[in-house]
Structure formats: C-alpha cells, structure tokens
TrEMBL record, chains A, B:
<dbReference type="InterPro" id="IPR039422">
    <property type="entry name" value="MarR/SlyA-like"/>
</dbReference>
<dbReference type="GO" id="GO:0003700">
    <property type="term" value="F:DNA-binding transcription factor activity"/>
</dbReference>
<dbReference type="InterPro" id="IPR000835">
    <property type="entry name" value="HTH_MarR-typ"/>
</dbReference>
<feature type="domain" description="HTH marR-type">
    <location>
        <begin position="20"/>
        <end position="154"/>
    </location>
</feature>
<dbReference type="InterPro" id="IPR036388">
    <property type="entry name" value="WH-like_DNA-bd_sf"/>
</dbReference>
<dbReference type="Pfam" id="PF12802">
    <property type="entry name" value="MarR_2"/>
</dbReference>
<protein>
    <submittedName>
        <fullName>MarR family transcriptional regulator</fullName>
    </submittedName>
</protein>
<dbReference type="InterPro" id="IPR036390">
    <property type="entry name" value="WH_DNA-bd_sf"/>
</dbReference>
<dbReference type="GO" id="GO:0006950">
    <property type="term" value="P:response to stress"/>
</dbReference>
DNA sequence: ACGCGTTAGTTTATACTTAAACCAATGCCC
DNA sequence: GGGCATTGGTTTAAGTATAAACTAACGCGT
C-alpha cells in the first residue's frame, strides 16, 4: 500500500534483538517525517528554509545582535555556512551586518524590522504546524516522549565510563 | 558550561504549556546529536557519507539490483539526487550501472564486490556506534522509546480524524 | 507508420553543508 | 615597535539536496 521504504527493508533484515538499532530507525523516521513537513511548508509559504528560520530565530531572541561566530556556535554549524546564509538574508533585507568599530574583524548581525515581521509569522506557523502534526497524541503521551528523548540525549552526551 | 545552544534559547522563551513544541525540540536535538556522530565517523573512517551508505544498503539488500527510480523512491529523495550519488559511487567502483536491454530508458544499478565489502564494514560500524551511543539506556528504556516514536509517527501519518 | 501522452533519467540552477585554506586585524611579548 | 601566534570571517572545493526544465524511449491508438 504505502510506497516501499528503505527502512522497512532494513527492519526485515534486522535481528529481533537489535533494540538500539530499531530505536534509532524510529527516531530517524519520526524526525525526517516532521522535518520534511516543516521544510515544504516554509518553502511554499515563504520561499524560505529551516536554516534561514534558525538564523532569524537566533537574532530575534538575542537583544543586541550576534557576531558570525556567535551564530555558528549557537546553530552548531560551520562559520562558512553562516557566511552564506547571512549573505542571502541580507540580500533579502531581512538582516543587517555591520563591521564592529572596536574590532574590525568582527561583524555584528542584527535582524531588520522586515526580518522580525517575517520571523514572527514563520514562528507562529512553526508552532501551529507542530501542534497539528502531533495533535493525535495526548499531552501525557507527548510529555512522556519528551522525557524519554531528553534522557536519551543526556545518556548519549555523557557516555558511560 | 556547555556551549550556548539555540534550542536552550528557544526553550527559555517557550510557554510552559508548549508540550508539542518541546517534544519536537527534544526529537530534533536527539536526532542531530546522533546523526552527527555517525556522519563524522563515516567521513573520517571511510571518507564516505550517510547518503552513500544508504544507497549501498538499498542495493545490498535487494537481490537483483535497482533502477534509479527505485532508489529515489526507497530513499525518499529526488531522482536528480540519485543521479549524482550513484555517479560518484560508480567512479569509486562501488556500484555498476547498465542500461536495461528491455527498456533503454531504464538503468539497472547493482553493488560491486568491493561495494559489498565496504558496505559490510560500514554496516557493522553503524550498528556498533548506535549500540555504544545508546549504551547508557536499558533495553526496556530503549524499547519504550521506540514504541513512543512509532506511535508518534503513526499519529503524524494519519492526521486526526 | 504516425502522432502523442507517459515514463525514466539527466541536466541546470540554486541552496545548504563541511573542512581546509586563506586573509586580515588584534594583541602580546620582548 | 617589530615579530608572531591567535582570532574572526571569508573563500574554495566538493558533496548533498530540491524543483523544474529537458531528453530520450516507450507504447498505444488510430
């Protein structure tokens, strides 16, 4: 019925006891399913993308602007990546970028009024979409999933010694 | 202590009741954390990538080879994407690609012996890495996470009625 | 056999991503 | 103040991703 999917193929070849591999597969599917929904919505509705939204979010939530390095650290991406995304946002008038007077190596990036307006709309849409996508689960089920994921993340971050 | 992270910034600005947004944030963090680990390992160890591994996996688990369209459907990516990844795998001698004699539009892609050898190593590594990353969680905890994710995915796939 | 819609894949244009090389400004240390 | 390591960002090269335009082959109906 549903289109064939690589992960079903993998699942068929997985020993019953591969619990962790199954968990990762479930995580991967769940993530990519939701991410794709968000991505397509942003593309159609705003001709924009999740990386652009992330940069705008970082700037919108930071009062005094951020440097390129701040952005790279916050978003966990390379500095070269930030250079490109910010350049395109600037071309669209959504952010400003000025060289710091104290240290001429430093670029200070701030969100423009149009940028903030767009961000607000995207932000609301994002929340609404997530709510809709997860509407089939009760608050309790959602919170229990959150706890399981947070504990898993914590366990991954400090590997057992 | 840990480096500042956009998602912590967002979390600070989130109303207590945004359960679904919190769940998505947790899912996103957990996923990207593990994916990054896999990606870096594949890059360093095999000078390769997850998309390449995915294509090799699809071919390794399919007995008679696959067409470009089959690969695109299985991996849920565009056909143009497959064209590029398969071309590079072919250049590295990991796959073969021959035009079907029945229908000269169709390309039949198969994994080469070297491709299968590499895939086996990557596959074992992949399993091992996932096991290590999730070693801090008990089998029961892992299975409970899997169930929660699978139910969430099912709920996302058939929106509320 | 001709035309024509459909299908399979490739190409193109653009964006996002990284790592690594590079450039320029800073700030130290003597 | 001259040299030099460090730091902040950009550039470059390559891979990954999409959508949309395109090409070639098929197959069907007449």
């Amino acid at each position: 019925m549903t289109r064939p999917y690589l992960f079903d193929l993998i699942l068929d070849h997985l020993p019953e006891a591969a619990h962790r591999r199954r968990a990762w597969l479930a995580l991967l599917r769940c993530f990519t399913r939701i991410e794709r929904e968000l991505m397509q919505h942003f593309a159609q509705e705003y001709n924009s993308s999740l990386p652009r939204y992330d940069v705008l979010t970082a700037l919108a939530l930071s009062d005094n602007g951020l440097t390129m390095g701040d952005l790279a650290t916050l978003l966990r991406v390379s500095k070269g990546n930030i250079t490109g995304v910010v350049r395109r946002l600037k071309e669209d008038g959504l952010v400003r970028k000025v060289t710091s007077r104290k240290d001429r190596r430093v670029q200070s990036v701030t969100i423009s009024p149009e940028g903030r307006r767009l961000w607000k709309r995207m932000h609301d849409d994002y929340d609404r979409l997530i709510s809709e996508l997860l509407a089939g689960r009760s608050d309790g089920q959602v919170q229990s999933l959150t706890r399981a994921l947070e504990r898993t993340l914590a366990a991954v971050n400090k590997p057992n010694d």
